[in-house]
Structure formats: C-alpha cells, structure tokens
Automatic annotation (TrEMBL), chain B:
All residue ranges annotated as the ABC transmembrane type-1 domain in the record: 30-310
Protein name as it appears in the record: ABC transporter ATP-binding protein
TM stretches of this protein: 27-48, 68-86, 147-169
Subcellular location(s) of the protein: Cell membrane
Taxonomy of the source species: Bacteria, Bacillati, Actinomycetota, Actinomycetes, Propionibacteriales
C-alpha cells in the first residue's frame, strides 16, 4: 500500500472538472491499474463458476464418474479461492485508490485555503469550501474506487458473451443486446424516482433545520415557554416527510420489483432457449445449468455499470466545485519590488483617512461607526489595498511575507483553533517566557486557572468551549505573545466586563511600551491609557490628542465614547 | 460545566422497540407475510430447472420445455408483484416508525429539565438531533428492511433446499462454524473500528473548516504551514483507522467467502455420491446445488448489514437517552405570599467539592434594581441563574414570597422570574411566531405590536412589507443583533414576569446600539424587580443598589454613591472609567 498522506499533493489541473478528474487518475494510475487487474480476475472467476458446476454435473454426475466429480469439485474450490483472493486484493487496492484521491482533495483544499488567506471568504462561501471536506471528497474517492469493479464487469461481460456466442449466436445476441436493453428499460423510472427522493430529502433537511432550531433556541423555549407550538410545528413537518416517504415508496417498490423481474425475464429466456437446444442435443444438461448460472451472474455487471455511471456523474459535480475553489487567486498580490521593508520604527501612514501611526507608541482609533476604524486597520495591515506608506515607501512594494511578519492584525474575525492551547501561543524563539506575560496582560490568567491542564488543555473547535469573553482574551494573548513590531488590534475588549477591561488597558500599554500598537475601541478605560487618540468622522481624521484633551475639546468625540446623559456626572464631579 | 446527556441501556432500547412494534401488529404482520410469499415464489426457479435438467437427460419434448419455461415465467410474475407490495408495505411502515421515533425524541428534548439545558451546552444535543436522527433514518429506511428481506430469503431458500432432500442440511451445516467464528470476531471489533474511522473524518472536517473559516487569521499569524501540517496529521490518523478496518476486512471477507464455498462443493460431492448410489435424482442434485448457491447472496447481505444495525442501535440508544434525564424540580404546590426574592447563605457547585458561591445573602426589594458587577469568573452568572430558579442551591435557599424557586412548576416559575442572556436566538418562522411563543398563538396582533412598541421595535416591524408575518431566522430576513435582542425583550414584555435577571444582555452589541437598546430595556424594566449582571458601568450607575461579586462572595453592596464614597474596588473602577 501507498504511504498516505502524500508528502505533497502536487499541482492540480484545475482548468475544467474533467481535466481535474483525469489529473486525479493519472496521479495514481499504477494502483488503479493493479486494482483493475484484480477486478478482472475476480469477476471472471465468478463468471466461471456456473461453467464448472455444469461440467461437474455433466462428467461427474450424469457421467457417473466419481473421479471426475472430485476433479471438478477441486477445480471449483481452486477457482473460489482465486476469486476470494483476487476479491480482497481488489478491495484493498480500491480502498487505496479511494483514500489517495479523497485525501488529496483535502490536502489541495487546505493548501489552497492557506494560500488564499483573507481573500477566501470574500470570493466564495465558506460553507461551499467546507462541503468539499464533508461530501465531495467521498464522491471523488468513489469515482476512483469503482473503476476496478467497472473494468471487471466489462471484461467478464464480454467473456460470458463470447462463451454464449460460441454455443449459439442467438443466445450470445440475447446476452449482448439484452443486458444493455434492460439497463435502458430502468431509465424512465429512475428520473421521477430521483425527483421524489430529492423532494423527500429537501423536506428532511427542512425538518432537521427545525429540530436544530429547537435545540439552539431551547434555552429560550424552556425559559419563556412555547414548547407546545414547536412540538406541533415539528410534528406537522415530520408527517409531511412521512407522506413524501410514502410517495417515494410507491415508485421505489416498483423499481425494486423490476430489479427482480428484469433479470428474471432474462434468466427465463436463456433457460428456455438453452433447454430447447438441450432437447435438440446441441448442448448438454450441465451446459444448461451453466447457462442458468451465466444469466444469474450477468445481473452483477449490469448493476455495477449503473452504479459506476451514477458515481461518475456525482464525481463530476464535485469536481466542478473543487475546480472553482482551486482556480481562485489571492486578491492582495505579492509583486513587492523591494527585498526588505523599511527599518524598524518606521511610520505607517494611511493616506485615505490621514491616520499617522507614531512608531513606538500606542494609538487608539475611535470612529462612529466603528467599522470606519476597522477599515483603516485593514489597509494598514494590508488586508485591503490602499494608499499606505511605511517609512515613506508604498506598503504594496514590500513583500507580503515581510509585511505579515512585522505587522500583525488581530481583529474581531480572528478565531481560536482547536488543539493544545499552548501550541496556539507562539512566541519569538528567543523569548519563551513571553507567554506568561502575554496571558497576564490579556487578563487571561483566570481562564488558564479554570483549565486543569492549563497550557496543555485541548481547545474545542473554534474555541467553542470558552465563553465569548474568555475567547477574546485568549485571542488577545495570542497576538501579544507574538510580540510583533507593529500590532493592530480591532475592538480587543468588546466582550469583557469593565473590571477586566480596566486591567487589560493598564497591562497592555505597559507590555507594549516602546512598541507600535494601534487599538480601535470606544471604551474610556482603554482610551485613557493610549498615548494618542485619533478620532475619525466620516472615515477621515477629525481630531488627534489624548483622551482627556479630546473629551474637553471635541463634543462629537465625547458623544461617542461616553453616554450623552453622562453630562450630569460631569456636573456632579 | 458540561454534563453529557445520558445514553439508554440495552434493556431500555429493547423495551422501547417492543412497545413500538407492539403498537402496529397488523402492519408488521402484513409486511412480513408478503415478504415470505415473495421469497417462496422465488424458490420455484431452481426446482423447475432441476426438473428440466432431468427431463433433458431422460429425453423430452420441446413442448414440455415450453411448458416449464412458461411456469418459470408465471412464478416470476407472481414474485415480482408480491415483491412490489411487500417492499411498499414495509417502506410505508418504516416511514411511520421513523416519524414516531423522531417526534418522540423532539418531545423528550422539549421536556428536558431547564438546568440540564443550561448546563449541557447544545453540542451533544445537536449531534443527536442531526447525526443520530439521520443515521437512524438510514437504518430504518434501508438497513432493517434489507436485513429482514435477506433473513427471510435465506430461511425460505434453506426450506426450499431441504424440501428437495433432507441431506442438503449437512453441507450447509459445514459452512456454519467458520461463518459464526469469523462473524463473532469481526463484530466484536467492527463497530469500534468504524466509529474511530468516522471520528477521524469528523476531525479532518473540523480542521478543514477551521482553516477555511479562519483563513484570514491563518494569513495574519502566518500559520499556513501549521494548518497544512495539522490537516496532514489528521489524514495520517484517518489512514491509520482506515488501515485498521481494512485489516479486519482482509481477514473477515476471505474467511466468510471460504465458508460460503464449503456448502456448494460439499453439496455437489454429496449429491453426486447419492446420485451414484441411486438415492437422489439428477434433478434433485441440480436443484440442491442451485439452492445452496442461491443461499450465498442473502446470507452475505445479512452479514454485511449487521454492523450497520449496530451503529443504528447506538444512535437509537443516544436518542432514547434524552428521555432519561431526571426531572430537576418537584412542584410542592406551595404558593408564594408576595413577589419578594430572597437568597440566604447560598452555596453552589457545578463539580462536587468545588463551590463557586460561598454563602451569598441577598435580599431584593420589590421593584428594586440591583446591578451585579465583578471580574469574570467571580460567580455573577451562577448567582444570576440561581436567582432565576435555573438551579437549586446546594445549601441555603433562594425564594420568591418564601417559596423556593425550584418548588414551583416551570410554567408558574416563568410568570415570576425570567432569565435574559446575551444569547438571543431568532427562531425560523415569522416575527409573530417568535413573539407568540411567550403567550399563545391566539394573541392579537395589537397586543404583539404593543409589546414591540414598548421596546422601540414597533416602527421597523411595521415598516416591513409583511409586518408581523415577515419570515425571520436562517433563510428568512436577517435581523441585526440589536433587532434580535429587541424581539427577545418583547417576548419578555409578553411573558410579564415580575422579576428579571439580565445577564450581560447588551455586551456584544456595538455601543451606540447598546445605548439605544437600553432605552428599549428601560421600558421592559419599568415596574419590575431587576437583577442585572452588568458589564458596562452605565447600568450600575443607574441601579438602586450595586453588588460587587468577587470570588463567589458579595464583597460590596450599596447604592452607587455609597460605594463610590466607600472607596473600595468599585470606586476605583468608576474613577478609571470616568477620569
């Protein structure tokens, strides 16, 4: 078996879905070829069993020769052993093919997601990409898996047809033409059945959504009432699904019956013709038994062919989705002409808003609405293109990797990843102890205390096991631990309580002393600690100063950061 | 804080199934009878072929051949028609059983004790709702019928074979020991192996989802290689699981196939020997061999579906487990004398031996507003839940009008105290549906709009083209967090409890919206007793009294001005906020 996963999934041909499927096949053609070989041996040895039983009846039983009987029984056993051995080998290779293709799809998509970065969610629904991981990988895998059986089916079908043709042209033609004809007969029934199936599946999806809705809102329901209403609504939808299921059953049962009937017709015709030949002495009694066996056997290649066609149609649909994602390119291009960025402690300037970030200080951005300051951060951190200079040079001439290394953006969309907590808190290699400082500054010590394994604790997917406030503090600690030259934080304390926020404001500024930090916020606790506050109106700088200066000099600023009614407090003081 | 929900034991599952099937004896009887008849009709072919072979050997006419072929065709038609109705009946029955199962499950979910709902988190329950219901659907729609059909076909085929001659049993029995041994070995391992395999795919999925949804974070932090390595590691683990189950099959499949071979070869040999001795006819030997061969397919299906049934059974056990959560309150029938909320020497722990509240006393005046402030993790939210009657205290008491909150039936409790959290779920349905659940479906539009007006939401709801009948929730109109919160508040107005516990109700909304919402909230709070867990100091300032909660105790308690004057931790905080 192959070593999986592959060290490198390679460069996929993502021009069209067919090219992608061809590329997938070519990448593993050796194991596919071996699987096909075993598939052919396996199916052909199955096809030989009826002939052997026929021979045993002819020479052994009716010939009254116990030696012959033993001989053919021995051959039957030998063929069965070959069949079972080649069967399991085919299965093993087919599984390898399935896995190779499926894992490769996952590897490609994961690499593409990291390549696209911030561009991904702007260009394609994340749900669509996630669906590749849940559904499409198995569809691509199935398409590779079925190749071996399809090849076996094709070859064994031809072999049986040839044997029958040699005995009788009529019989051979019945098989050669009859089998594809039977396939076609089932066709007209399939599409209405698929339609009804789809209908029911949609209703089931709807029903599942209602159930999910109930569970997600269960706190509300149990807290305030409404269980009866939701129970009745679920039951009503559930009964609709049931009715749709009955509609499916009406057609499905006909199809099931036809799957008994059509091959059965075939068996009857072959046996009838065979028996007439036998009466005429053209074939022996044993051969008649063999014919019966062939007719029964041919159901298998027939089913395999239908299955393979279905699987490949699905694989094509999946390949289309995969190709769409793989063909995307990041929108922040990396054509930086400079080899290195400006020297440390260079000034960042956003021309559009007029924001200047003084190196080595903490700058707070305040705006109404808060999205304006987040947009400034996007440009300063080069997650969106804009006229930004860094130490006088345009930011887009600096290589992207250099920008990312020196300027770190941690915004409200930042997520915690699952896995060991300590693995997320990366520090500069020369300062391993910095993690403690970062956790302390983010006031995340109590989060750590609540975990029995502390830094070894396993974080659930997207940090779900933490409350919003805990998650936000851990994300802040993660950004602080990296200790970047320039740190851009968007609303880092929006979900924590005032007590904690006060602590963070104090510790954050002292931890970042001498480093460049930008924070967007409207909390007085944070603003009071900033070296300078930049107030934006309509996306451009309206005032710059300390928190207290702006409180005194700028009524619009005061309105944003304190409550209008706060005036009475001011008077009271 | 997350307690897993129970899983039903084997005997409970069996009892439930007996009850379920006991309710539909007729439907089961008819479906089974049709399947048995269909399988019986299918048995004609080998028998007729055997006779044909013998007739051909002994010399016969074309006429006879035609008649036998016609008989074959006749049985085929009968089998087809019977199969059609047998399948139809069993599928219809399956849909019915499935509907009952899922409706029972949702019913049980809706009756879960409120403390369990608050504690368990929705993850486990969501998995049961989606994956287990789907898995069970697959089992009931496909695995169980296929398995039953396979069993019936196998039994009928065996009967057909024995009718040819009792001696056929001998070769069949030879195949049984290896089959049973291999099956026991396989089934003991398969379920865990496939569950492991399934989990590794969930892990791959989760990693991929994180990488995709966090692509921006990955870029910002330069985690590209780490994410790639993570996915590759997950694949490595998945490959290990796949290789394990493959090794199980590599042993199991050939063993089983050998077990199938033994009866065929033995029948041929034994039949041949009997024929040579003159104890069996050529037709009998042929028919017997064909029957034994025909036995392979149903037996194989029967065996290969067994592990599916195991997985379906596990899902059923998880679904039934939801019904086994014990009730967390017993109504004593005592009636509160007034609307006054009191907590006395309250201690509470989620995990035994680790109290998070250490003797809290709190007496809340009727109509009073109390703000609770304090660092996160100090126990504010826990105290809030106890004051809302979600959990009973470990020691001490929380009462309304001298009656313990958990002594009241849930429906009555709702009229006294309500807990409002920052989770504001919008249900899929109309705005009307979202509001009416707090009262009843017959509530007049005027009453609902009045509630919306009181929280300042009447204007935007009226401005919608379909007003109250606008569809919201996933797939419908997307509401802003502030609007969603307004709906939640309007629900409260309709439910009309005299006391409200607000937990960080406005913290996740941007400050402007929060201020606007506070005005909506003020209308809701009018005339009620309010205990607010405050993140922002605005609310504390407005409260009648402020309780500072630190380390599971109330360390400062008094009006805003008293506390500022007292110069404790609250005063420090207030100064830094307003300096």
């Amino acid at each position: 078996m192959r070593k999986l996963p592959l060290d490198h999934p390679g460069q996929a041909d993502a021009r069209t879905p067919w090219r992608f499927l061809r590329w997938t096949i070519l990448g593993q053609w050796r194991t596919i070829a071996v699987a096909m070989l075993f598939g052919v041996i396996w199916m052909c040895s199955s096809a030989m069993v009826p002939a052997i039983i026929g021979k045993a009846i002819d020479t052994g039983v009716t010939g009254r020769d116990s030696g012959e009987l033993w001989k053919w029984a021995g051959i039957l056993s030998a063929v069965a052993v070959v069949q079972s051995a080649s069967g399991i080998m085919r299965h093993r290779y087919a599984v390898t093919n399935w896995l190779t293709a499926a894992y490769r799809v996952v590897q490609l998509v994961a690499r593409q997601a990291t390549h696209l970065g911030g561009t991904l969610s702007k260009r394609v629904g994340t749900g669509e990409v996630v669906a590749i991981g849940t559904n499409d990988l198995s569809h691509i895998g199935n398409a590779m898996d079925v190749l071996a059986r399809a090849m076996g089916a094709l070859v064994s079908f031809v072999v049986v047809a040839v044997i029958l043709l040699q005995t009788s042209t009529t019989l051979g033609l019945v098989v050669l033409l009859g089998v594809p004809f039977l396939l076609l007969l089932l066709g007209p029934l399939l599409s209405p059945l698929q339609r009804r199936n789809l209908e029911q599946r949609e209703m089931m999806g709807h029903l599942a959504n209602i159930a999910t809705d109930i569970v997600s809102g269960l706190r509300v329901l149990r807290g305030i009432g409404g269980e009866r209403v939701f129970h009745d609504r679920y039951s009503a939808e559930s009964q609709k699904v049931r009715t749709a299921g009955v509609r499916v059953a009406r057609l499905q049962s006909i199809l099931d019956a036809l799957q008994v009937f059509l091959p059965g017709v075939f068996v009857v015709v072959v046996v009838w013709l065979g028996a007439r030949f036998a009466v005429q002495g053209r074939i022996t009694a044993g051969e008649l038994v063999a014919f019966y066996g062939y007719a029964a056997f041919l159901v298998l290649p027939l089913r395999t062919a239908t299955e393979a066609a279905n699987l490949w149609i699905r694989a094509f649909v999946s390949a289309r989705r995969i190709v769409r994602v793989l063909a995307l390119e990041p929108e922040i291009d990396d054509t930086g002409t400079l080899t290195a960025g400006p020297p440390e402690n260079s000034e960042l300037v956003d021309r559009a808003s007029g924001v200047r970030v003084r190196p080595g200080t903490t700058t707070a951005l305040v705006s109404d609405p808060p999205t304006d300051s987040a947009a400034v951060v996007d440009r300063l951190g080069r997650f969106a293109d804009g006229e930004v200079t860094w130490g006088g040079v345009p930011l887009d001439t600096v290589p992207r990797a250099e920008t990312r290394r020196r300027i770190l953006v941690s915004d409200t969309g930042a997520i915690l990843f699952s896995g060991r907590l300590g693995d997320q808190l990366l520090t500069p290699p020369d300062r391993p102890g910095h993690v403690e400082d970062a956790l302390h500054a983010a006031a995340a010590g109590d989060v750590l205390d609540s975990l029995p394994d502390r830094l070894d604790a396993i974080v659930a997917e997207k940090g779900r096991s933490f409350s919003g406030g805990q998650r936000q503090r851990l994300i802040l600690a993660r950004a602080l631990a990296i200790d970047p030259e320039v740190l851009l934080l968007v609303e880092p304390t929006s979900a924590v309580d005032a007590h904690t926020e006060a602590r963070i404001a104090e510790r954050l500024t002292s931890l970042r002393a001498g480093r460049t930090t930008v924070v967007t916020t409207s909390s007085p606790l944070m603003l009071a600690r900033a070296d300078q506050v930049v107030f934006l109106e309509d996306g451009v700088v309206a005032a710059v100063g300390t928190h207290h200066e702006l409180l005194d000099s700028c009524p619009a600023y005061r309105a944003v950061v304190t409550r209008e009614e706060a005036d009475e407090t001011a008077v009271a003081r | 804080m997350s307690d897993a929900l129970p899983i039903a034991g084997g005997s409970d599952v069996r009892r439930y199934l007996r009850g379920l099937f006991g309710r539909h004896p007729r439907a089961i009887g008819i479906a089974l009878a049709l399947h048995v008849l269909a399988a019986a009709a299918g048995l004609a072919a080998p028998r007729l072929l055997g006779q044909l072979v013998e007739a051909v050997h002994d010399g016969t006419s074309v006429d006879h051949v035609d008649r036998v072929a016609l008989a074959l065709a006749g049985f085929l038609v009968v089998q087809t028609v019977l199969t059609r109705y047998a399948r139809y009946r069993s599928q219809v029955f399956g849909e019915q059983i499935l509907a009952e199962l899922r409706e029972d499950f949702v019913d049980n979910t809706l009756n879960l004790p409120i403390g369990t709902v608050e504690n368990a988190g929705s993850g486990d329950l969501l998995t049961r709702t989606s994956r287990d219901v789907e898995q069970l659907g697959w089992s009931v729609r496909w695995a169980i019928p296929e398995w039953l059909i396979a069993v019936i076909t196998a039994v009928m085929t065996l009967i057909g074979a024995v009718l040819v001659g009792w001696w056929v049993l001998l070769p069949c029995l030879l195949g049984v020991p290896p089959l049973v041994i291999a099956l026991r070995w396989y089934l003991a391992r398969a379920k865990d192996g496939y569950l492991w395999e399934g989990e590794t795919y969930s892990t791959i999925n989760a990693s991929l989802t994180e990488t995709v949804e966090g692509a921006r974070t990955v870029e910002a932090l330069g985690l590209q290689q780490a994410r790639i390595d993570r996915v590759d590691d997950d694949i490595t683990e998945s490959y290990r699981a796949e290789r394990y189950t493959l090794s199980l099959r590599t042993i199991f499949f050939p063993t089983v196939e050998t077990a199938y071979l033994i009866p065929t070869v033995a029948t041929l040999l034994l039949g041949g020997w009997l024929y040579l001795r003159g104890d069996a006819s050529l037709g009998e030997v042929t028919a017997a061999t064909l029957y034994v061969q025909a036995l392979i397919d149903p037996v194989d299906r029967m065996i290969s579906i067994l592990d599916e049934l195991q997985v379906g059974g596990a899902s059923l056990a998880r679904l039934l487990g939801v019904a086994q959560v014990p009730e967390d309150r017993v109504a004593t029938g005592r009636q509160p004398v007034d609307e006054k909320i009191d907590a006395a020497d309250v201690r509470f722990s989620y995990v035994e031996g680790r109290d998070v509240l250490h003797g809290v006393d709190l007496s809340v005046g009727i109509g009073e507003r109390i703000a609770m402030v304090g660092p996160s993790g100090a126990g504010k939210s826990t105290l809030g839940r106890l004051l809302a009657g979600i959990h009973p205290p470990r020691t001490g008491s929380v009462t309304v009008g001298d009656v313990g909150l958990t002594e009241l039936p849930l429906s009555e409790l709702r009229g006294h105290v309500a807990l409002v959290t920052q989770e504001h779920h919008v249900f899929v349905g109309t705005i009307r549906d979202n509001l009416a659940l707090a009262v009843d479906e017959a509530a007049t539009d005027a009453r609902l709009l009045e509630a919306l007006d009181s929280v300042d939401a009447g204007d935007w709801v009226r401005a919608l083209p379909q007003g109250l009948l606008t569809k919201v929730g996933s797939g419908g109109l997307e509401l802003s967090p502030a609007q969603a919160q307004q709906l939640a508040l309007a629900r409260l107005v309709l439910a009309d409890p005299h006391t409200l516990v607000l937990d960080e109700a406005t913290s996740l909304i941007d400050p402007r919206a929060a201020r606007h919402l506070e005005r909506s909230l003020a209308a809701v709070l009018e005339g009620r007793t309010v205990i607010a867990i405050a993140h922002r100091l605005f609310s504390a300032h407005d409260a009648d009294r402020v309780a500072v909660v630190e380390d599971g105790r109330i360390t400062e308690f008094g009006s805003h001005h008293e506390l500022v004057a007292a110069d404790g931790s609250y005063a420090d905080l207030w100064k830094s906020w307003n300096s």
